[in-house]
């Protein structure tokens, strides 16, 4: 299964955070799954880290190095992803998350998240 990790899940995974539940850890460690991190997440990390937001403990370059070392695939942003945003219901207002949702729907992939607002987008969401 192709799984797109949302930004926080990806950061928690590389840090082996206790915030990841057993279901998330099992899916991340399953060799049958291909794990993806979006360029959107790197963009979000770059912006929030430069603003001094406490929930982004590393900068985007460090994050990319960690993601690559963990074997995660990097998903670029394609025009189709941005166009798909216009079709999304407004369950969620965050522009980073909306683009992650559009990417997961377009590819298709499962989007692993802990964000209950994203869960409203249906079966492509893997809540952990």
Describe this structure in words.
This protein is α/β, with parallel strands linked by helices. The protein has a single domain, classed as 5'-nuclease (Rossmann fold, 3-Layer(aba) Sandwich), CATH 3.40.50.1010. About 45% of the residues lie in helices and about 15% in strands. It has helices spanning about 5-15, 20-30, 40-50, 60-70, 80-85, 95-105, and strands at about 1-5, 35-40, 75, 110-115, 125. The protein has a 5-stranded parallel beta sheet with strand order 3-2-1-4-5. The longest helix has 12 residues, at about 40-50. The two termini are about 15 Å apart. This is Twitching motility protein PilT. InterPro entries: PIN-like_dom_sf, PIN_dom, PIN_Sll0205, TA_system_RNase.
Describe the structure concisely:
It holds the Pfam family PIN. Residues 3-121 form the PIN domain. It contains six helices and five strands.
Mean pLDDT: 95
Helix content range: 40-55%
Name of the CATH class: Alpha Beta
The biggest beta sheet is recorded as:
5 strands, parallel
Name the poorly predicted regions.
Answer: none
Strand content: 5-15%
User: What is the count of DSSP helices, taking H or I runs of 4+ residues?
Assistant: 6
Please tell me the CATH architecture by its name.
Answer: 3-Layer(aba) Sandwich
Radius of gyration: 14 Å
By CATH's scheme, which homologous superfamily applies? 5'-nuclease
Give the spatial strand order of the biggest sheet.
Answer: 3-2-1-4-5
Number of β-strand runs: 5
The domain count comes to: 1
Q: What is the ordering of alpha helices and beta strands?
A: EHHEHHEHHEE
CATH topology: Rossmann fold
Global geometry: globular
Q: Between the first and last Cα atoms, what is the distance in angstroms?
A: 16 Å
Structural class: alpha/beta
Domain PIN: 3-121
InterPro entries: PIN-like_dom_sf (IPR029060), PIN_dom (IPR002716), PIN_Sll0205 (IPR041705), TA_system_RNase (IPR052919)
Protein name: Twitching motility protein PilT
Organism: Thiomicrospira aerophila AL3
